[in-house]
Amino acid sequence: MNQEIRNLEPKALWNKFADLNAVPRPSKKEEKVIAFMKDFGKQLGLETIVDSVGNVIIKKPATPGMENRKTVVMQSHLDMVHQKNAGTQFDFDTQGIEMYVDGDWVRAKGTTLGADNGLGVATIMAILESKDIPHPAIEALFTIDEETGMTGAMGLEGGLLQGEILLNLDTEEDDEIDIGCAGGLDVTAVREYNEEEVPENAVGYVLKVSGLNGGHSGMDIHKGLGNANKIMNRLLFDSFENFGLQVAEIDGGSLRNAIPRESVAKVVISEIFDEAFVFDMQEVINDITAEYKTTEPNLKITIEKGELPTKVMDLGVQEGLIRALYTAHNGVYRMSADMEDLVETSNNIARVIVKDGTLQVGCLTRSSVESSKFDLANALRSAFELIGCEVTFSGSYPGWAPNVNSPILEVLKNIYQKQNGAEPKVVACHAGLECGILGTNYPNIDMISFGPTIKGAHSPDERASITSAQKYWKFVLEILQNIPVKA
């Protein structure tokens, strides 16, 4: 199945990607891939270090004639986002990713592909293994847990690296060179509630939102995509207001850095409103699907009779939750005043769970401006504290301030122009790259980020362009040949 991937050009890159994708590598469960990378380095006879948090560092000397060039840190993260379609049977903890070629794209069968950031990892592996690619001294840095907290980058100690230039291979448009990124903060609201007996003469229903595109909660947040948690809340709000709907359970979204694709709610309604409820719900569903017909053509909202639950939420807490979710900001909060078309601050209402007397709402707030990040986080905190939730901030990480005078930026711009006959786009992104964190312990390192074209990251629609990977590979090889000499 993956043999067709191995036959793609450049084979050095795609073979390493196939090797990597055979290894399960969930965030926070990277033991297998850490061992895989450690063995890889040692088999090559290269100095290999696993630090105290699990980051892997492999050092390779310069090729002959390149010893006087600056040492380069090539960096990518080992973990990948695990998302699968509802009907896909797949165990990310034990199975390797099943890939196939679809025209110019490499895809996975019903799951995320892991090109984010597996193609970056594979690139570095191919350079480390090569015997004929000229390069300066390389320090390959493979970080862990980028997708769910960046704890690998946060735990990297100062002094382990001596490189003067860092090439981060974790962006997703091959005509862009990234010089800045957003920081992030997890906002979590939790409270307990009393469960009540289901009223007499009630009927049970299951509401389901599915078929949304999902995607990266940073890179895709400005695209007007549907958020399953917000859409579900509209349904609950309308039915509570008009028919006294009561909630038994809600299970919406999954990972904080993925725009929610699905939400399911188990609810009850008095049988005297049964017919009117279904009729009204269908009108609301029609309105919502019409709103999203362009950005979410596959959106599906269903309402079906279900087993009658035994317990429902306390009505006062339920009303507070529905109103708090309605008012809580989701999407773009502020655009940058300094860089055109750059999202400065945003929020993703990523996870909503109501079950067994506890409710929990998880958000990921992003911003390239620290004060704006906490401004939005405090707005969310206020909304949920008003309904009695305990709200915590965690996992805060800094953004990466753009340096338009970066020396390595000039090198990359000149190479891109020579190879492609056009100027690259020099941008900052709204994703959470590790550069800002790495820069705290290595403040003098000159950092840049780039990568091949990847679409639909953090969703089962993730796909990597084959022709773009070829373009990117040539770019990488030329960059390594043109690293400046040491001062």
UniProtKB/TrEMBL annotation:
SUPFAM superfamilies linked to this entry: Zn-dependent exopeptidases
One GO MF term attached to the UniProt entry: metallodipeptidase activity
Keyword tags: Cobalt, Hydrolase, Metal-binding, Metalloprotease, Protease, Zinc
Annotated GO biological process: proteolysis
Cellular component, GO, one term: cytosol
Superkingdom in the source lineage: Bacteria
Catalytic reaction list: Hydrolysis of dipeptides, preferentially hydrophobic dipeptides including prolyl amino acids
UniProt similarity note: Belongs to the peptidase M20C family.
Protein name: Cytosol non-specific dipeptidase
Organism: Flavobacterium cyanobacteriorum
